[in-house]
Each structure stands twice: as C-alpha cells, then as structure tokens.
Amino acid sequence: MSTATTSPARPAPAAGRPATRRRGPGNRALLVLFLGYAVLVVFSVVYLYPFLIQVATSFKEPAAATRDPLSLVADPFTTAAFQRLTETRFPLWFANSVVVTLVVTAGRVFFNSLAGYALARIRFRGREAVFSAVLAVLAVPGIILLIPKFLVLNQLGMYNTYPALVVPLLVDAAGVFIMKQFFESVPASVEEAARIDGAGTFRIFWSVVLPMARPALITITILSFQGSWNELPHFIVASNDPDLATLTKGVASLVSGQLGSGNQYPISMAAALVMTIPVALVFVFFQRYFVRGGTAGAEKG
Amino acid sequence: MSVVRPPAEATAAVRTSRPDPVGPARRSRGRSGEQNLAGWLFVAPTLLVLGVFLVVPIVMALWVSVSDWSGRGSPFAGTVGFVGLDNYARLLTEEGLTRSDFMTSLRNNVYYVLLVVPLQTVFALFLASVLNNQLLKAKGFFRTTFYFPSVTSSVAISVIFLFLFSGSGAVNTALRAVGLDGPTWFNDARGLLHVIGDGLGLWDAAAPPAALADTSVLGLSAWQWLAGPSVALSVIIMLVVWTTTGTFMLMFLAALQDVPLEVEEAARVDGANRWQSFRAVTLPHLRPTVLLVVTLGIIGTWQVFDQVYVMTQGGPSKTTLTPAYLSYSYAFENQQWGVAAAMAFVLFLIIVALTSVQRWVFRDKDAAQLRRQVRQAEKRRSARRPGDDALAVAGTDVPTTGGGSR
C-alpha cells in the first residue's frame, strides 16, 4: 500500500534494482495486490468449502453422500436427514441448550456487570484483593477443572440436575474484567448527579450507569451466548443423564454412537448444521462485538 | 455536567472531600460504610460462584490426588485413605500401564503443540499481513470467512471433519483426483516421523532399529518417543490450525493497524524491499502480539479435549490420547480418581512452567535484539550519508516500543 500512495512522488529510489524501475512501482503494487487476492481466494476456498459440503450433504441421500462427497449439489434433494433428526432426542437436546444458554447468558450479564461496576467504581475495603482473586481465576486453565467440578457438584448433591448445568457457568472472570474496564471509562459526573438527587448505589447502577453500558452489555451477551451454546466439557462432567444432554453432548454421542458408523453422514451433517445456525446468525449480525470481545478478552493477561 | 471528564480516582477524592450539610465526619463514615456494604453485595454472587465452583473444587481435587478415593460416596468419608504421593509416582516413576499411558499422552501432546502453535501463528500473521493491504477490496468478507470457524462449536466442526477425512470422504476423493492414495485417516496409527524416515530410507518402519526399539525412557521406547504425530493426530492438528488461525489473525490485524506508516515508508524510501521492511519494521513492532499469540497457543494446545472426545476417544492405538482426555477417561470411565486428579495437576504444572519459560525466553530475546539493533544502527549511522535517519528510526525506536508496551 505504501508503494501505491508514495511512489508517484518518489524520485526513483530503487537505483540498485533496475527491473523494478523499468516496470514501474505501480505495476509492482498491482502485482502484490493480485497475489494477495490469489492467496485470499485460495484460503477462502479452504475455509468455506467444508461448510458448503456440510450444507449440501445434509440434503443428500446417504448413498449419494459417500459416493460423491465433494459435490455441492444434492441430487436427489431430500430433507429426510432433518426428519430423522426430529425422531431422535435431538429436539430435546436443542431445548436443553436453549434453556441453559438463556439462563447462563442472563446470569452472566447481570452478575458480571454488578461485579465489574463494584470493582471499577465502588470504593469498598478489600476491593484490590477481590480484583486480584478474579485475575488469578482467569489464569487457571479450564480443562484441569473437569474433575474438581464433578467432585463439588457430586458433594453438593447437584450432579444430574439442571442447576448443575447452569450455576457453575453463571459467572466468568473474563466477563467481570471486560465490564470493569468499560465502567472505568464512564464519566463519574453522571453518577455524582444521581447521588446528589439521593439515589442509592444499586439504583445508580441500575438506572443510570447500566443503560450507558449498552456496547459492553452486548459484547458480554454475545460472548456468553456463544460460550455456553458451544460449551462441552462442563456438560460432560455435570451430568450423565440423557435427558439433560445439551446439543454439544448429544451431537457428540450421535457420531460416536450407532449413527456414526456406516453411511449416516447426512444426519450428522444436518445435526451439526442446525447447532451452528444460531451462533452463525448472531455472528453475522453482531460481528464487530465478537471481534472486540475476542481481542479484549484475550489481552487481559 | 462537568466539562472535563476527570479520571475515576480523582473524582473519588473530590467526592469524599465535598462539604456536606449533614457534617463531613458523619457523612464520610456513613458513606464509606454504605460503600463497603454495597461493594461486597455487588461482588458477592461472583465470589460465591467462583469460590464454590472453582476454588473449593481445586482444593478437593488436590485432596483426591493424594487419596485412594474410588468414586463412591464422599471423598471426605472416613473410609478414604491418604496415600501421599503414590498417585503421582504411578504417573511419573512407577513402571506400569498408567505411566506408559500418561507418557504416551504427553508425547502426543508435545508433537501436537510443536506443530499447532507455530503453524497457527505463521498462518495468522501471513493472512493478517495480506489482509492489511489498503488497496484490497472485500476485506470484511475475507476476515469473516477466516474468523467464522473460531466462533463455531468445536463439536460441529469435529463432526464435519469426521466426514471430510473419512475413508471415502472429500479429502481422499480430492487426493485421488490428483493421483494420490489417501490413508484411512482416523484408523492410521503410524507416526509421521516413522513414515518419513522410512520414505527417506533412514529406517524400516516395520523393523525399527534395535538401538531405538530397545532403549526405554520412562516406560516408552525411544522408537515410540520419536514416532511423531500419528496420521490420526495430524487430522486433529489440521482441524485446530484451521479453526484457531482466524482468532489470532484478528489480533495481528489489530496490531498491524498500529504500525506507524511513516516508519514503514521511510524504510521503503531508504531502499528496503517489502520483505526487508517487514522484517526490520513490522515484525519488531508485532513482537508483543507474537508473544501473546504464542502464549495463548501454548495454553490452549495443552488443553485439547473436545476434538479428541468427539473424533477419536484417544485411538487408534492411543496415538490421539492427550493428558486432558486421559485424565477424564481415567476418572469417569475407569474410576481411578486419584491418578486422574494427579494427571490434571501435572498438566497444570506443565502449562505454568511452559508459559513462564516462554515468557522468559521472549523477554531475554527482546533485550538482546534491542542491543543488537542499537549496535547495527550505530554502525550504519557512521557509514551513512548525513540527513538520512529512516533506518536509524527503524533500527532503534521501534523495538523499544515493541518491547516496552508489554
């Protein structure tokens, strides 16, 4: 890019490179641009083709799916795979995922912003200690919590219950951190005015500050939605009751169970497709929040 | 409202010192009492959930890792015995199936990390620098395309890859089209290094050299240690690189937008070509981001679980076992809770150790690189025409900001 913007005014700096000079820097920039497009198109195919195959296969007949796995045309076209899915426990898994995701998301939005606000604005004794604790929690690799989580759920008699799926996910340290950072950027004068009017701390938080936090709240909502919809390990250790299986666990059992072998690929592709659609829709409409949240969450360390 | 927005700390100071009709002393005590109460009430739910489902469980698991709990009843019941470090010994020093399983999982994960982390970092950086071209149209489309797998469920993607890499799946069909015979990916336990060495004539994979096959290190033969990732594991490697590259690409894109254009242009005016200016100007500026991406990569790759759980369950021939999955299956399938908890803690220590080592290495290199560049810049300056400072800037200032912003 720098070549294109500066080169016309530049008095032939590349004296040692006659080839470049003869062709002209404009051509070079075009060549680079062309190569860039070529690279991007190749990578796009690598990134999109698997999803296209998935969509096409879910509308194929099992035999056609294995006969020509590369084809993006379902011929004959059939929705049999989706109908088969409705005869399995798939609708139950879907319902469980919806319930868990809604409750977890609502909980995270509320509790994360409460804690984030307190850590950013309320000057209470022990605030630094609480914040350090949240940071320490952020550093714990999630996967080593598999056994510990089961132990505590089992001990509390929560194993194999709905609360076991939901309660441990209600708060996440990264979300607290994002909200704290946001609240620190809100001008304090707003709260001050409300305080003079005699509003209490919770009232100021709820009706004055929270409405200003819309962008941060959307970010938290989306990250929580995506995180709990895609969560697998926690649900594995929180229950083994088939009635409490969510989509991730259910679809995983679908491919390792009797449907995984043989030529039942249209069904597993359809299942994966249906479970991807909600996140895909949210992603398309709220992409910028994803990006912001993703990088903000990552740079917390 | 106020005209200037004061920072939080300053307003807090103003707030407490403001005169008050009720009287300054009473009010400030009442206020701070109220603030204490409100603060603790606000953080209470968070502390409760994190404490009960994170801190307490870790303590419980520490106890289980030094106990002989069998999974029945409470781990704190009187019948559960303290066994000291026995469970850790079974993983690390005692000969047996447990140790060879654990060592196999470590070997697999080491190869996995060694491939995934560099590949995803390089691809992410490459895609980001291609996308950073200002003349490029449809940037948003490409960015979305590469990022989409990162937000998609790992289960859904694993299911797709099971189909793509099945015996007669899309990948093998495509390979056949160019005259290659693809393996039966998920059933192929051959190690890539074994296969490559065999192909180069270094050894016969069917009859491994005795020197390697007969030397045993920590329960595995040297031949097994040097297997490389199996064909099945390389599918998981490809999947993960494909999935995570997009996230890291976004981080690199954000960092690239902060690279000062003038410095880059100055380097180009000075006669540096694209690659040289990338290496001398852009890369040093990206150093903190590279550090971040590699750190996150190491933390993430040592925790690989979902893909193994969905696709291979550790097979074929345990070549896709990872410590995380092994710990899970020892606990929930074999009811060997003590050993499984010990595995989790060893895994935790590995992650902590590796990230600290990696941070230390990077930091040291930063300083060394800075010294080297200062030296080079001085040498160049003495040999250069007067009035031309571009490369001096590139040589000294940029690494300083790069290293200092961490």
UniProtKB/TrEMBL annotation, chain A:
<feature type="domain" description="ABC transmembrane type-1">
    <location>
        <begin position="94"/>
        <end position="286"/>
    </location>
</feature>
<protein>
    <submittedName>
        <fullName>Carbohydrate ABC transporter permease</fullName>
    </submittedName>
</protein>
<keyword id="KW-0812">Transmembrane</keyword>
<keyword id="KW-0472">Membrane</keyword>
<feature type="compositionally biased region" description="Low complexity">
    <location>
        <begin position="1"/>
        <end position="18"/>
    </location>
</feature>
<keyword id="KW-1003">Cell membrane</keyword>
<feature type="region of interest" description="Disordered">
    <location>
        <begin position="1"/>
        <end position="22"/>
    </location>
</feature>
<feature type="transmembrane region" description="Helical">
    <location>
        <begin position="204"/>
        <end position="225"/>
    </location>
</feature>
<dbReference type="InterPro" id="IPR035906">
    <property type="entry name" value="MetI-like_sf"/>
</dbReference>
<dbReference type="Pfam" id="PF00528">
    <property type="entry name" value="BPD_transp_1"/>
</dbReference>
<feature type="transmembrane region" description="Helical">
    <location>
        <begin position="129"/>
        <end position="150"/>
    </location>
</feature>
<feature type="transmembrane region" description="Helical">
    <location>
        <begin position="93"/>
        <end position="117"/>
    </location>
</feature>
<feature type="transmembrane region" description="Helical">
    <location>
        <begin position="29"/>
        <end position="49"/>
    </location>
</feature>
<keyword id="KW-0813">Transport</keyword>
<feature type="transmembrane region" description="Helical">
    <location>
        <begin position="162"/>
        <end position="183"/>
    </location>
</feature>
<keyword id="KW-1133">Transmembrane helix</keyword>
<dbReference type="InterPro" id="IPR000515">
    <property type="entry name" value="MetI-like"/>
</dbReference>
<comment type="similarity">
    <text>Belongs to the binding-protein-dependent transport system permease family.</text>
</comment>
<feature type="transmembrane region" description="Helical">
    <location>
        <begin position="265"/>
        <end position="286"/>
    </location>
</feature>
Automatic annotation (TrEMBL), chain B:
<comment type="similarity">
    <text>Belongs to the binding-protein-dependent transport system permease family.</text>
</comment>
<keyword id="KW-0813">Transport</keyword>
<feature type="compositionally biased region" description="Basic and acidic residues">
    <location>
        <begin position="375"/>
        <end position="388"/>
    </location>
</feature>
<keyword id="KW-1133">Transmembrane helix</keyword>
<feature type="transmembrane region" description="Helical">
    <location>
        <begin position="37"/>
        <end position="64"/>
    </location>
</feature>
<feature type="transmembrane region" description="Helical">
    <location>
        <begin position="286"/>
        <end position="305"/>
    </location>
</feature>
<feature type="region of interest" description="Disordered">
    <location>
        <begin position="375"/>
        <end position="406"/>
    </location>
</feature>
<protein>
    <submittedName>
        <fullName>Carbohydrate ABC transporter permease</fullName>
    </submittedName>
</protein>
<feature type="region of interest" description="Disordered">
    <location>
        <begin position="1"/>
        <end position="32"/>
    </location>
</feature>
<feature type="transmembrane region" description="Helical">
    <location>
        <begin position="231"/>
        <end position="256"/>
    </location>
</feature>
<feature type="domain" description="ABC transmembrane type-1">
    <location>
        <begin position="106"/>
        <end position="358"/>
    </location>
</feature>
<dbReference type="InterPro" id="IPR035906">
    <property type="entry name" value="MetI-like_sf"/>
</dbReference>
<dbReference type="Pfam" id="PF00528">
    <property type="entry name" value="BPD_transp_1"/>
</dbReference>
<keyword id="KW-0472">Membrane</keyword>
<feature type="transmembrane region" description="Helical">
    <location>
        <begin position="144"/>
        <end position="165"/>
    </location>
</feature>
<feature type="transmembrane region" description="Helical">
    <location>
        <begin position="110"/>
        <end position="132"/>
    </location>
</feature>
<feature type="transmembrane region" description="Helical">
    <location>
        <begin position="337"/>
        <end position="362"/>
    </location>
</feature>
<dbReference type="InterPro" id="IPR051393">
    <property type="entry name" value="ABC_transporter_permease"/>
</dbReference>
<keyword id="KW-0812">Transmembrane</keyword>
<dbReference type="InterPro" id="IPR000515">
    <property type="entry name" value="MetI-like"/>
</dbReference>
<keyword id="KW-1003">Cell membrane</keyword>
